[in-house]
Amino acid sequence: MEEKNERRTEAKGGAAGLGPRKVVGTPVRRPERTIAVESYVPEVARGVGITLAHFLRNTKEYVSGQRPDPVLESVGEGINTLSYPEQRRPYPERFRGLHRLTRRADGSPRCVACLCCSTACPAQCIYIEPGEYPVGDGRRGYERFPKRFVIDEVRCVFCGLCVEACPCDAIRMDTGLHAPPYDSRDQFLFEKELLMSFPGRDGSYQTENPRHEPGDPTHPGIDRKRHQ
Amino acid sequence: MNWVEFTLDAAKAVFVVAVLSLGIGGLLTWADRRQGAMIQDRIGPNRAVLWLPKRLAQALALGPALLVAAGMVAVALVSRSLAGEARTERAFVFGHLAVLLVWLTGLSVSRVVAARGVRSSFDAFVAWIGDSRRFFFAGLVAHGLVALPGMTLRGTAVGHHLREFAFGGAPFVFALVAVFGAVYAALAMERADKVGLRIAGLLHPAADGLKTLFKEDFVPPNADRFLHGLAPIVTFFPALVLLAVVPFGDTLCFAPNAAGVLDWASLLEPLASVPAGGTCEVGVRLQVVDLNIGLLYVFALSGTGIVGAALAGWSSDNKYSLLGGLRAASQMVSYEVTLGLTVVGALMIYGTPRFGEMVAWQATHAWGIFTQPLAAILFFTAAIAESKRIPFDLPEGESEIVAGYFTEYSGMKFTMFFFSEYVAVATIGVLMTTVFFGGWHVPFLDRDGFRVAIGESVVAQQALSHVVVVLLGVVAFLGKVILLCMLQLTIRWTLPRLRYDHLMRLGWRLLLPASLVNILLTGLVLLAVEGAGEQILAALAVLVDLSMAALAVGALGAGVALVSYWLRPVRRTRMPRTSAVRLAERLGGTRTARMGA
Questions:
Q1: Which residues contact B539 (CB under 8 A, 6 or more apart)?
Q2: What is the spatial distance between Cα B293 and Cα B241, in angstroms, rounded to a whole number?
Q3: Which residue of chain B has the CA closest to A49?
């Protein structure tokens, strides 16, 4: 108790500026430095040994192709980290990546420009400009097509509601891609052509759901030619 | 000097620049890049690749192998008429070469099969043998079996038959295996349409050099254009010419012709054997020039490196450059003193500044590391400081002065600074090897072959022809230099940078007095040895032999341990099967990246 008080007064005396300021507190005990540490040479040798061991092991596993698969076998000896650009951990199957517009058998988009996705989108990142098929086209009067279909991939929150909302299975997020590191925002405005150029993770541009064109006998809705 | 000598000198100069400067410099650049990749867990230098069409790659695999095989058969046919000791020696060399090639080929095939799977019945056989380390260990045993009869069965009938067996059979085994290995490699390429030549990323330094040649050469507007351009040349030139005085092998002796000088014809017939203590009348020194001031020449030239750094700092019109140049100048001047004083002890012992004679002294007495251990450490430290590399890289301390004296340099000029640093590392390795690690000397290898002896008692003996001995010396020299350079790199990767006052204190208050003490101690020891009796000298000789034996055993053990470590497969247990792991499994795993593949 007495000792504590004494220290306090010491501190006060220092703060008052009378004489050099005294240091308060118990002195920290320094770790003892042996001659080996002082002379620096054995410690350097130890450090060099550690570096060399790491270098040897790392180089061995890379150069001789012994590097284990960091995803499939990752417990135990060997390097455990993924080296990113060269090795990638595959995303889970239901990972929502960049959007794609699925295609019909003839290569045109499945999208019928119903605006369900842009309506459902909470981030309002989808812009669709619908267009009518020209007179004489078999699809005219049944459905429209997107003249422009733009998704702002920076604004997108990757919630997947557009995919849920789509009645035609025309928009999907199964590309397995994530947004590339562009350097300006307008580069993230993905147009229809770009969105149609992404394949799904199975490599196909279409979907397994069959598409029934107007005029097909399997067409489920009202076929005006048949029902006239 | 005649045309023969001139041609030989030119060839030696090209060898020194190509192998000791550019080769080792490239190797060190690769190692530094590999280390950087290790820290960031990248694959590192493997992007540079030379795509060869399939047929060309197959020809490159087959052609040299066929040539080597044919050469081996030719040598065997030419030396058919040899008799006596020469025949035994030739059989010994043939046997070892054949064994070496067999286990190397087996090892490579086994690694290839393990990596890409079994494709043929031969692959299945190799896979059945299993772990590729077995090839290595079997090869070691076979080497021992080849070496053993030469020591124990000499002069007996069995020994004679074994010798004839090795003499006749080994060259053909060698040729067959060489051709087989090449054909196997060529067949393995058959499935690809092009073959990438990467050499484990060793092409990368060359690509870097090419790249910087085409980069912009920026000169600051107010810089002194002339001095700015001169500085990298002044730095690079001494680094290149410095190695001219260092011997990279023993003198190669030739049979003298009638006039007693070297001519083209005598180059074809090197002496079969040179006696242990013997010298030759007509020889080619494996050294560009044999200056009588050897070591002093090295110090004089390495001193001009200061001028380059100071010029670069001064001419750049940049305060950081100027500070870096000043730091470089003061640091290098300080450590030059220590550098010069540490080798005084070695000079006192060897009694000559000529490198060739230094190595000869170490070969007949003891390596410098045993006679001058303190000086070796001091020299190494001072030399690293002299080369301005971590932990002494104050002149280019990034945290304080950007990049120091070469802040304002770009393109090839920057590369010249950069590369002269690597050449400086190689130079330090070469000097350490020559002054302290016996140069081209291999323990227990005399001029006429191996003679393992402790004191007077001979343990084992094997005569070798002159050319083989000299070649072994060159290989040993390069190996020592590369090891010492790797040590320097590892020190660079390990230690943090010193503070400037610590650097100066270390130089002037620790290394300098220690080197003076070393001179004093050396003098005392020299006096003591001079006054010592016969018995003490004999005991010292035994001590030297024992240390050499320990060194040889240690080096061999380390080599074997390193190779078997390199071949050891990595064993891992599997991870819990999450959905991501299942997906990765379906996609064939994530291990797509492989260096050199």
A1: none
A2: 15
A3: B490
Q: For the range A43-52, what are the long-range contacts, defined as Cβ-Cβ under 8 Å and sequence gap of 24 or more?
A: A44/B491, A44/B494, A44/B495, A47/B494, A47/B495, A48/B487, A48/B490, A48/B491, A48/B494, A50/B494, A51/B490, A51/B493, A51/B494, A52/B486, A52/B490
Positions of chain B with pLDDT lower than 50, given as ranges: 597
Residues 33-92 of A with CB under 8 A from B: 41, 44, 47-48, 50-52, 54-56, 58-79, 81-83, 85-92
Write the pLDDT tens digit of every residue in B479-518. Answer: 999 999 999 999 988 988 888 888 888 889 989 999 999 9
Contact B134, A84 (CB under 8 A): no
Residues whose CB is less than 8 angstroms from the CB of residue B154 and which lie 6 or more positions away in sequence, other chains included: B88
pLDDT tens sequence across A149-168: 999 999 999 999 999 999 99
Threshold 0.90, pTM exceeds: no
Name every residue whose Cβ is closer than 8 Å to that of residue B479 and which is 6 or more positions away in sequence. Answer: none
Which chain A residues touch B584 with a CB distance below 8 Å?
69, 71-72, 89-90
Phi, psi (rounded to 5 degrees) for B486:
-60, -40
Residue among B238, B235, B239, B295 at smallest CA distance from B424: B239
CB count, 10 Å around CB of B395? 25
CB contact under 8 A, A76 and B491: no
Q: How far apart are CA B270 and CA B297, in angstroms?
A: 31
Q: In sequence order, which residues have a C-beta less than 8 Å from that of residue B123 and are 6 or more positions away?
A: B109, B113, B117
Residue matched to tokens 């048949």 = A226
